[in-house]
Write a structure and sequence with these properties.
Number of strands: 20
Shape: globular
Catalytic activity: UDP-N-acetyl-alpha-D-muramoyl-L-alanine + D-glutamate + ATP = UDP-N-acetyl-alpha-D-muramoyl-L-alanyl-D-glutamate + ADP + phosphate + H(+)
CATH class of the largest domain: Alpha Beta
CATH superfamily of the largest domain: Mur-like, catalytic domain
Number of helices: 17
Enzyme class: ligase
Keywords: ATP-binding, Cell cycle, Cell division, Cell shape, Cell wall biogenesis/degradation, Cytoplasm, Ligase, Nucleotide-binding, Peptidoglycan synthesis
Largest sheet: 9 strands, mixed
Oligomer: single chain
Distance between the termini: 57 Å
Subcellular location: Cytoplasm
Number of domains: 3
Strand content: 15-25%
Helix content: 25-40%
Function: Cell wall formation. Catalyzes the addition of glutamate to the nucleotide precursor UDP-N-acetylmuramoyl-L-alanine (UMA).
Strand order of the largest sheet: 7-8-6-9-10-11-12-13-14
CATH topology of the largest domain: UDP-N-acetylmuramoyl-L-alanine:D-glutamate ligase
Length: about 450
């Protein structure tokens, strides 16, 4: 069996290692450059590879192709593979049959990293032998090759879900759905929504789907479509006989007739959206039969995720917050919504078809100045130029932070929450967040 891996990054190299271990004839092809560290791993494992090209004769003879999530379906080589009827799958689909481990799959437009990390923290604190993979950390396929874990918490993007055929998580979570990555879905929101719901398409009556019952896109889909999984909703406003909800400043989760309660103020993560993430993670912990005391302790000591509403420093009574992971309007909505002081907002980057109107009320209420940090800031200026008193354009992070310091007064907050991708000025959102933190520390 010939396995061709498109993309020589974390998921590609992990898949190549697992494929080789399982007796496939493996070839890795990357249209860009493969990082030196990954080349070394391929060479050590005697896996054939090429970079900066796709040699068709070595690819179109595949029995199965694993495509890295970053490569769009519209890429010429992918189109040719599909025309020939060669299955093009994701890393998760390739690796899943080789493990007996229980998987918990988490998807959503926002909150999936925090929910994934929190769920992992809950299960690990309870002493479960659990791995963490998907969009985070070491590739799932490579961890399956090492065969160390009884269960995995997987953060799954819509791109990874597009490449599944038979994969099903035992427990699936959809944190929320808002327009994102529409450039990859023919600018049709419904295509993107369907893509997220692929997480439940192979689930059976023995599996679970945990979802945000306050989310319009999710509720609409569930009204019109069927899943066989057992549904476990969570909500800030509704209550359930089975599910998780907030009542009188208390989080309650009722699952399999067992009740769990915890005061919301004891939960370490702040903000309404984080109560939702906590409800989702708690629902998993209850399904995995983790003790109440362990759940309580884990929720009260969880540190949060880097680049997601991360408090950096307080300087002259001004709080600097790094929310670089907010790459769409919905994520920035949560960030602005959780601000309690006058805010200087650093925003901008590569726009994925943003509609800034959703932020208008929050900007009027909370934002005193906007610093645009992008190559093209026209849409932001058009949207908010008449709404805030101060609007400044900069083209590097140091200038953004210095300008923010000049504008702020005691008691203000400086919030980096770009609502955009980072590729115009930075390598990725992590690079953007680290540069912000470095600039703040240099003040």
């Amino acid at each position: 069996m010939r396995l061709v891996v498109l993309g020589g990054g974390e998921s590609g190299v992990g898949t190549a290692i697992l494929g080789k271990q399982k007796g496939y004839d493996v070839f890795v092809s990357d249209f860009g450059k493969i990082k030196e560290s990954y080349k070394e791993v391929l060479i050590q494992n005697a896996i054939a590879w090429e970079d900066e090209k796709h040699t068709e004769s070595l690819i179109l003879n595949a029995d199965v192709v694993m495509k890295s999530p970053g490569i769009p379906e519209k890429a010429p080589i992918v189109k040719k593979l599909i025309e020939k009827g060669i299955p093009v799958i994701s890393e998760i689909e390739f690796a899943a049959p080789f493990t007996k481990a229980v998987t918990i799959g988490i998807t959503g437009s926002n909150g999936k990293t925090t929910t994934t990390m929190l769920t992992y923290h809950l299960l690990k604190s309870a002493g479960l032998n659990v791995g963490l993979a998907g969009n985070i950390g070491k590739s799932f396929a490579e961890q399956v090759a090492e065969d160390k874990y009884d269960s995995y918490v997987l953060e799954l993007s819509s791109f990874q879900l597009d490449g599944i055929i038979n994969y099903k998580p035992h427990i699936a979570i959809i944190t929320n759905i808002s327009p994102d990555h529409l450039d990859r879905y023919d600018y049709k929101y419904e295509n993107y929504i369907d893509s997220k719901f692929r997480i439940t398409m192979n689930q059976t009556e023995e599996d679970y789907l945990i979802y945000d019952a306050d989310d319009e896109a999710i509720s609409d889909w569930l009204k019109k479509n069927k899943t066989r999984a057992k549904l476990i909703p969570f909500s800030l406003t509704k209550t359930f006989d089975e599910g998780a909800f907030i009542k009188n400043n208390t989080m309650e989760a009722i699952i399999n007739q067992e009740e769990f309660k915890m005061e919301t103020e004891s939960i370490a993560l702040e903000g309404k959206h984080n109560l939702k993430n906590a409800m989702a993670a708690t629902s998993v912990a209850k399904l995995m039969q983790i003790r109440k005391a362990t759940i309580r302790e884990s929720l009260s000591n969880f540190q949060g995720v880097e680049h997601r509403l991360e408090k950096v420093l307080k300087i002259q009574n001004v709080q600097y917050i790094n929310d670089s992971k907010a790459t769409n309007v919905n994520a920035t909505f949560f960030a602005l919504d959780s601000m309690t002081t006058p805010t200087v907002w650093i925003v901008g980057g590569v726009d994925k078809g943003n509609d800034y109107n959703e932020l208008m009320a929050l900007v009027r209420e909370k934002v005193k100045a906007i610093i645009c940090l992008g190559v093209d800031n026209r849409k932001i200026i058009d949207a908010f130029g008449n709404v805030v008193d101060i609007m400044v354009e900069v083209n590097n992070m140091n200038d953004a932070v210095k300008m923010a310091q000049r504008i702020t007064e005691k008691g203000d907050t400086v919030l980096l929450s770009p609502a955009c991708a980072s590729f115009d000025l930075f390598e990725n959102y992590e690079d953007r967040g680290r540069q912000f933190k470095a600039a703040v520390h240099n003040l």
